[in-house]
């Protein structure tokens, strides 16, 4: 974990600021021409803390992202991810076909376009959304915070993830607004978000939720299984 230490020596007249991030330690000492009074030391300590706090926050974000990307999922983590993916499919696919929101068809895509779509969907939305809504908003694995706080953060993450789709359609991607406000789509997004949340919480790695998200998006929108989203994508691609 990252930490920042600030120490003041009034007699000698210096301020020492140290940053520790994993195995690296950075420190710097600022000297003054005279000794500091107690009042001056207190004021200086307050100012240092206010200036250093944003840097500590950035270090913590960097540490979370690095840990999530470098953590290699175990065999058990991949099995859990596969089970979660099956639950998403078993929940959403029959319901989508029943309400005629999904339509199974055979795609007619060239090899180059297929590869481009696979890479494009891997980066956006899968990698970007998992980084924002899972890695940044959820606590790291084995964090000692209480279950209530974890559930609260999970609820905030899930709500932000689901709400981002109609907001995105309203502000930036208006051709997909018919899809992104559809009740079945929002329900499916909620189920997918829950699955990705469990996958990240259990593995501590960004790659298991990305795999679930990517396979689902490819199956829904790009193969295509989702006519409305497919029509919207044609204007984009």
H-E order: EEEHHHHHHHH
- Strands side by side in the biggest sheet: 1-2-3
Based on CA atoms alone, the radius of gyration comes out at 24 Å
Low-confidence stretches: 11-15, 17-34, 222-237
Strand elements, count: 3
Biggest sheet, in brief? 3 strands, antiparallel
Portion in strands: 5-15%
Helix-strand makeup class: mainly alpha
- The average pLDDT is 77
Distance between the termini: 42 Å
Q: What is the approximate shape?
A: globular
Helix content: 55-70%
- Tally of individual helices: 8
Give a quick summary of the entry.
This protein is mainly α and 237 residues long. It has helices at residues 38-70, 75-98, 111-136, 147-171, 177-180, 183-203, 207-222, 227-236; strands at 3-9, 14-21, 24-31.
Secondary structure: elements and pairs:
Layout lengths: L2 E7 L4 E8 L2 E8 L6 H33 L4 H24 L12 H26 L10 H25 L5 H4 L2 H21 L3 H16 L4 H10 L1
Antiparallel strand pairs: 1-2, 2-3
Describe what this molecule looks like in 3D:
It contains eight helices and three strands, in the order βββαααααααα. It is mostly helical and 237 residues long. A three-stranded antiparallel beta sheet has the order 1-2-3, with helices on one face. Strand 2 (14-21) and strand 3 (24-31) form a beta hairpin. It is globular. Residues 11-15, 17-34 and 222-237 have low confidence and may be disordered.
């Amino acid at each position: 974990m990252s930490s920042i230490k600030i120490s003041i020596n009034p007699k000698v007249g210096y301020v020492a600021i140290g940053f520790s991030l994993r195995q690296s330690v950075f420190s710097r000492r600022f000297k003054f021409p005279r000794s500091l009074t107690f009042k001056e030391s207190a004021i200086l300590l307050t100012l240092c803390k206010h200036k250093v706090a944003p840097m500590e926050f950035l270090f913590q974000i960097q540490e979370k992202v690095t840990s999530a990307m470098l953590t290699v999922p175990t065999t058990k983590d991949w099995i859990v991810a596969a089970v979660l993916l099956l639950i998403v499919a078993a929940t959403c696919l029959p319901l989508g076909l029943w309400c005629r929101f999904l339509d199974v068809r055979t795609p007619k895509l060239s090899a180059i376009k297929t590869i481009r779509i696979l890479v494009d969907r891997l980066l956006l939305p899968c990698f970007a959304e998992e980084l924002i809504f899972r890695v940044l908003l959820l606590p790291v694995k084995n964090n000692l915070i209480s279950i209530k706080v974890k559930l609260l953060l999970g609820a905030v993450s899930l709500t932000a993830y689901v709400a981002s789709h109609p907001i995105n359609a309203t502000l930036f991607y208006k051709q997909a607004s018919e899809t992104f406000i559809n009740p079945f789509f929002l329900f499916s997004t909620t189920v997918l978000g829950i699955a990705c949340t469990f996958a990240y919480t259990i593995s501590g790695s960004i790659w298991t939720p990305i795999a679930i998200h990517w396979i689902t998006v490819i199956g829904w929108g790009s193969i295509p299984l989702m006519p409305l989203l497919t029509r919207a994508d044609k204007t984009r691609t």
